[in-house]
Records
---
Amino acid sequence: MVTNNRLINRVILYCLVLLTVVTTVFPFLVMLSTALKPNDEALQAVPHLIPQSATLQHFKDVLNPTIFPFWTYFTNSFQISFITALISVVVGTMGAYSFARLEYKGRGAIQRGVLLIYMFSGILLVVPLYKMVTMAGLYDTKMSLIVTYLVLTMPVSLYMLGNYFRTIPQSLEEAAIIDGLTRIQVIYKIVVPLSIPAIASVFIYVFMIAWNDYLFASVFIVSEKNMTLPIGLSHLFHTKHYVWGRMMAASLLSAIPVVVLFSIVEKYFAGGLTAGGEKG
């Protein structure tokens, strides 16, 4: 009886996993299928998942600057996302460490204030951020988006890194300080190497937020030379060059950096770094 129940539970689990995988992957298969179909086949009343006459023409059109300045938008998005994620990790590491390890007046109030800010929806911050950006003379610049994304993501960065830092044994840091290391050296020689999984998670999170944002980019950026990929895709939708195949091809190409970045840092998500450091 126990064996039968275990078998039923395993079958249910596998079915749920399969359903999750299909639900997640199927939209991407449809996008790839549409990107590889000619226009007439993509608009058939009865569509086929597998293209009957596959073509790479839509990808060539998207990469053609006369049709769609993909590389301009791609470069802008990558620069903004990478710089934002890098600053968020560096500043977040210092701030989170102060929350986790240092004792100073008002620390609790600052922590609660950071979490309180995160409770507000991003759309509520559009007007005050717009006024701040215009007053600072940053309107229609990449810096306006970098500052905005830092404001939006810093609370989560501080929260995630702070919680991870608290799991690192203080004995490691105390021993390093006794050996003559300064507090800054402790952070970058002890804490940071042991916190690579959390730092990588924060970097990916901030990068994805900045890469996929449409709302703030549409408010703060108006010139084509500074537009990001989400805004560029929206403009492609309203031009004479718009066809479903090109839209799907551009969408697939815009997802590549996030996939590549996750593949690169995936190895850092393995656990056991803290335990290994404690034994040493």
---
Amino acid sequence: MENNKKYVWEDVIHTIKKLDPKKLEVVKATLPIVLEHGEAITTRFYQRMFENHPELRNVFNQTHQRTGHQPKALANAVYAAAAHIEDMSGIMPALERIGQKHRSLQIKPEQYPIVGENLLAAIKETLGDAATDEILDAWADAYEVISDVFIRMEDVLYKTSENQPGGWAGFKDFVIDRKVQESEVITSFYLKPKDGARLPSYLPGQYITIKVDLPQEEYTHVRQYSLSDRPGLEYFRISVKREDSLEEGDPAGIVSTSLHNVYQEEDILPITSPAGDFYLDVNSEEPVVLISGGVGLTPMMSMLNTIIEKQPSRKVTYIHAAMNGKVHAFREHVKDVAATHDNVRSYVIYQTPTDEDRQEHRFDKEGYITLDWLKETLPSNQAQFYFCGPTPFMKAVNKALKEWGVPQEHIHYEFFGSAGDLES
């Protein structure tokens, strides 16, 4: 099993190359400038890197480039790492999250110098004369320290992934054994290894990376999807929402629509072994509250199915929010689980329920999740809370939990795609 706690963080910290004190002071002094121009720098960085190394378009999600999500995420990561460069243990969770993503995407040590070269050039182009040779030299050393941390950390993750029972290196071919429509917009894909080998275990909530090559596309597309069933089965399951075009000029999701409309049973999908830092603590018996919005239910399904199979006495409350019953996946499964397991309670919130939803009494609340409703519904705030869904939904949940006094260490969440900020 790949567990990001297996490597000893202190070993990484103690082997970091120390910056020259003078260069460290330069980095500290220029942090506000980097923060102010961070998105402009990282946007230009990606432009330069893809111009100079177009093959890297096969690695990075181009949709996140167009929306600006990835440049913003990179800017935040660079700033945070530089701000904590003397002791990165303070941002260990963020670094672990990035390292897990890199391992899943197969980012390799030889790619870090490419990133560094183009990042420094982007700083120079963006800041102009303000980026003196002294500043660029100091930031070059800072980048070397930061990249060394990631390379060391990811080396352990690669070795752990490959050497675990059933593990493998790189991408491995899987066969789509079954394709099941779960709602009008979500379809599940049951994946089995083409070579018939055993599957590695994983932590409920983790994801895999799939690789899709389409004849009409110049570059390969890679996407990460949460595993939507529990570990220990003969298959991996992902449940994918079809991202249709919502308005003119807003392109449909290339990978999700291809999976829905093009890929069929018996087709091949190359994938990497499971990764991710968002997962259920299976060593705890504390009560759990799972809260999902839309397709954010996928990691929650893995957690819920794990609890009912492995922890039948652990109390779990599952709250799911969706537009209506037409797009609500796994509704009957969760309903059946709650009806047949004394430790499980479930609630459904529909924003705009259909007439059929009303007639069939398919939901418990109309509208949105609120703090008052959580207080009325849950026995207390003494639980481990896991949530996932669209960013506005997660911001609302996060705000409600904090106002209710839930400790930060009991709040766990995951962004789909580039990491964002729930506090803004």
---
Amino acid sequence: MKKVFKLFYTDLFFTNRLFTGLGSCVVLFLFAFFFPWLGIIPQLAFFTLLLLVIADVVMLYQVSKGIFAKRHAPERLSNSDDNELGIYLENWYPFNINVGIIDEIPFQFQKRDIWFKTTLKPQQRKLINYILRPTRRGEYEFGAIRVYVMSALGLIRRRYNFSQGETLAVYPSFLQMRKYELMAISNNLSEIGIKKIRRLGHSLEFEQVKNYVPGDDYRTINWKATARQGNLMTNSYTDEKSQHVYCVIDKSRAMKMPFEGLTLLDYAINASLVLSNIALLKEDKAGLITVAEKIGAVVAADRRPTQINKILEVLYKEKTRYLETNMELLYATIRNVIKQRSLVVFFTNYESLSALERQLPFLKRIAKFHLLLVVFFENTELKKVSEQPAADVEGIYIQTIAKKFEYDKKLIVKELAKYNIQSILTTPQNLTINTINRYLELKARQKI
């Protein structure tokens, strides 16, 4: 009995309407002291309010379970994307109710205003959807769902607690990967900024010898086969396949820099996932290497159907390290792991020309054996500072330093080009599009 009573008063909450009614009663009692003609009106008002409160309690507590609530969430969340979740409600009361819902979302979101209001008719079911955008990979713990029910009287609220604690993993942006995948399958990549690049010359991969049909290129006629068959025969070519594409991700402290809630490492991880998936759709082989002061993960290039899931699982666990990149170890790993000429996309960040010069000898060695594409980031905050008008001498000094660092980035591109090393200097938000564009360009020009 004591436990039941405790549950009763811990789940009972007074509303503003009740406090307004009590305040009105207090005012009537005060006025009755100065105006005797009010008589028993204050007492009648108070007892009427008391009866209404009792009636409201009876209405809300006449059934043990008047409402049902359940959280609808995906098996995993996609980092940096809008993930849709829902709260399913069922009203088991025989009358209309007003409902307020609190969903205890993970602390990582730093939101304390997840409060939903709705109304439900008897036996009505409803699904309330809302959006969460995580900015870090890892495990997110959801708590209980708190539902506050109020009748038409609106004097008290009854709270229902639905213990639905669950842990959801936030993976690299697989929603973005699927979007690009659908665009690639339907040949609509141009809608999201992917350029159409004209293929130069013939593909180098021979497919078959077939009968000549009007419209075939005369240069592809196979004269030996024509002599044997007595009919015109032509060589048929197809796009080159099974080329190796490796994404190499720098996990050192240079990639910890934040931008719009995400670190540069997370941007590189998301872009690597999309690029690997596009490469697999183009029937190339995708691989992955992560590196900091030591080698992290190594996924050999392959094009099996399970390859993208394997890469996704590896990327999910990667974290920023706080030491310098061991380029000598990276070079040795690439030489041991990658046995044929491949496209190596190196995601890193250089803030100064001296930072590049420390790594340049090893980049030149890698470029001797593979087509190396170095992807690094523009410092958008410095760019904003350099574009702002200076108000004083200190402002001129800060603007000059910002422009110096911005100019260093352009010098890095030129320095890499001197040694036939491809490069992309991009803002974080355009990283994925620019990387895919360059991959398709290199493939069309048969540089891999």
---
Amino acid sequence: MAAGDFDVTSAQYGAKPDSDITQALANAWKDACASTSPSPCKAPIEMQVQGTLQAPEDGSQLSKPDTWIDFSYLDKLTLSGGGTFDGQGALAWKQNDCHKKANCNSIAINLRFNFVNNSVVKDVTSLNSKNFHVNVIGCNQFTFQDFTVTAPGDSINTDGIHIGRSTGVNITDTKIGTGDDCISIGDGTKQLTVTKVTCGPGHGISIGSLGRYPKEEPVEGINVRNCTLSKTTNGVRIKTWPASPDASTASDIHFEDIIMDDVANPIIVDQEYCPWNNCKKEAPSKIKVSNVSFKNIKGTSSSPVAVKIACAKGLPCEKVEMTDIDLKYSGNQGSITSECSNVQPTITRVPNALACAAKS
């Protein structure tokens, strides 16, 4: 078949509204790939989604319980078309116990990108994923643009975009509202740029969590700029587990020109992250955090502790800079303040209450 358009709704493939189009989609994809001779699926390929694709509500029809749609080992993919990937996650959220225990049953992620390079996702929506909306692993030079993530604030474990072991990922002009981190940045992430992202509801934009598993790779070159967070449970965050099995690093991390709208914990570094309270906090994190800056961060905090930088005992954070921090407390539980330990940041144009006087 010659290169061109492959329409799943055509008579050749037979996809119909309100029906299972799995086979039609698989056949169209196979033909599209075969058309890119001499190497199947190595030439540029674009998948346009128009309308709404719905995942099985209970997940029972999925070939893998942790995956709905998977793109793997591709180069020059474009995913576009203005359509929506609806994970139909409401039933799964009720059954999800991952917020209570570390070992929980696998639940489907809406979109997985594994080892996909020089590619773009634009003008599509991920809706109500059962688990993470998007998981990006082993990718290089990958862009999200005009991408939308939507799920209720109480949907469990529904990170918007999770990135790990990838280099040169760019997220721009993107709107994320979900029940967990809007963007979560895992080990091995390098040269990530996040710009013009709005986040809320959600748990903020987070580096980590890091240091939970053996042989994690360093995180470096993270730039988050010109973003707005609204009514999220955290703002910009770095989180590492205590009692890390192996040593690693998180460095060259920069947050700049960020607006906080009634955000709890607007600026937070937490090296005692322990969400299920089943780790050994007396054993400090082995993740070295260094060369971190928070610049021009303004707006309102819904909690009195607007700045918290709690670094690891015996492994203090180094080269931490705070410049032009202007946050006001929107509640009535006292005055705005900061809490910091095992760090001596460089402070420029920051009110005394937020100046992060180190505590023993």
